[in-house]
Design a protein that fits this description.
63% of the residues lie in helices and 0% in strands. By secondary structure, it is mostly helical. The protein folds into two domains: 25-61, no CATH class; 67-119.
């Protein structure tokens, strides 16, 4: 068997492992979603795969609320209900008696809101 000594090596250069696209993902879409994807990719003048890759790179997925955050939101909701009841009471009785309660509740509300903002 003869070996070719001066073989032409002017082909496509090999890609690095980090650049190669070695994973394939199959997804199911409704008809409306499929045609929406097709139209958006066409308007961007790229193929569907590249469109999806760019969407993945630029998107941000927010995590679900933790049970602690959910508890804080429920607590905040209950406090808002209390504020509403105090407002009704203040309108009926007079504002001077309810002023102290409003200030205390306002401080509690601020604390809960700060905790929620720190967690998010």
């Amino acid at each position: 068997m003869k070996t070719i000594k001066n073989r032409n090596t002017n082909g496509r250069p090999t890609k690095e492992a980090a650049i190669k696209k070695g994973y394939k993902i199959t997804i199911k879409m409704a008809t409306e979603e499929y045609y929406s994807l097709k139209a958006k990719a066409r308007s961007a003048d790229i193929n569907r795969s590249e469109f999806i890759r760019r969407c993945i790179r630029s998107s941000v997925v927010k995590q679900h609320l933790t049970t602690e955050q959910t508890r804080y939101i429920k607590q905040l909701s209950g406090m808002a209900n209390n504020v509403n009841q105090i407002a009704h009471k203040a309108n009926a009785v007079g504002y001077s008696e309810v002023h102290r309660q409003c200030l205390a509740l306002s401080d509690r509300l601020d604390n809960v809101i700060k905790i929620i903002e720190d967690d998010c």
